[in-house]
Amino acid sequence: MVQVYTEHLCRRHYSPFISDAVLFRIFLLFTNIALSLILPVATGAFWKRVKFVHEQPLVRYTEDALLLFEGAMPGQERIWSSSQAVNEQFSDFFIPASIQAYEEDVNFDGKPDAIRFNAKVQGTSPVFGVKALLQFHYEISDDVILKFFGLAYAAHTSALPGGELYLDGELELRQLTPITDKKFNGEFDTPILDSSQSEVAEAVRGSEVLQFESIVKSYLSRNYSTTFIDRYPVWKPGAGNSFMLDWNLRIPTHQMITVRPQVIEMLKFAWIQFLATFIAIWFFFHWLQIFVFRYRIFDTRAVSDVQPKTQRF
Length: 313
Description:
Layout: E1 11-14, H1 20-43, E2 51-55, E3 58-70, E4 78-81, H2 84-89, E5 97-104, E6 114-122, E7 127-141, E8 145-175, E9 179-180, H3 200-203, H4 212-220, E10 224-230, E11 234-237, E12 242-250, E13 255-260, H5 263-294, E14 301-304
């Protein structure tokens, strides 16, 4: 013989609606619900308040830049800007520069993996320090919708006059607070360096008499911005008649973004935590009920499925 099906026989316990046995069952139910809420909240895993998204941003160089070459003494600074208004206002300190910039797309996915910037100046006094600002348009449009104009700032000084400065690092996203998921974030989608403007105040926003300190301070006070992580600067000494800035900016292929999930996603995650805890506690309460009713701790009328029912006339 082969067993093909199994039926479980039950012993049913009956009790009046208002009795200790009914109150015990109600107490277990509400205790189970309460513990299923309290335990996930107490362990800090009930609400998914933030999540981390890894995406590759689309970064484009806007051809806006501001370069400052510092000499040995104050007053020997030389400046170059992509803005004609800035160059005209600081004509006494202006120096011509040969600029080259291009993008590198290694995996041919349409998103630059690196941006190379090269600036060369001739006939300048010995350069002992460099400050540079480049502007980019930063865009993410997958799980997070984010568009803004960002800056890359680099500064380096040396006790020896230089002939070349090589910078190589990553352009990373900087956040103060999480970004709302699936919501368009275009609050800062306005150029900071705008070469098309004829006024210096409009060509370089957030600046006080064109000070790098005020530009950086205003820029970093935003909720999200970009930061250039300069890991390995290389300063090459030179004679002082020419100087070259060779700047390689790498775009992270998996930029980590802190996101505030939507309410429906938070409820979905909370429901999973509640249900998992509820089942685990209910399994324990199930064995508690078996013990209580099997040993007749409460008065109940037990009816077995094995015993035949008596006929009443």
